Amino acid sequence: MSRGVRVIALGLAVLAAVSGCSFFGNEESALTNWEPALSPDGTRLAFESLVDKHLELFVRDLATGSTEQLTENKDEDWAPAWAPDGARIAFASNRGDNNDIYILDLSSRQAVRVTTDPGDDINPNWGSDGRVYFNSNRSGVWEIYAVGPDGSGLTKLTETPAKGK
To answer: Phi and psi dihedrals of 161, rounded to 5?
Structure first.
């Protein structure tokens, strides 16, 4: 996906979230809380929400109802995915003008970038094996990759055949 297409897609997503969405042909309420991810122990819910017209990550304690903002920056943070131990959250962000995967340590609130390819890295999902699985178009088509939470061991897991083969 070219940078121009990415910017248009991200703009449309934010516009849909701000102005409401009509997935089913009806005018819907504005998307304010999105992409829920339940913690491994079932006590907390991570999600993204609009803050000043950009997406930030939040976590809600399901027992108390208290909600805490996890990220705060001018960029879009979305698609939270819990680590199996519940101590970290993987997420996608366009920090640095590129869509990459980040890991947020919940105790320190420090986010570390674990992918750096100029392609789009999105849709993180933390596996029970400790690796983060995600989609990327770095090869020119959308494929599935895995990487360690420290950015090591990047592995391409799928291979789309070239057209016409």
So the answer is: -60, 145
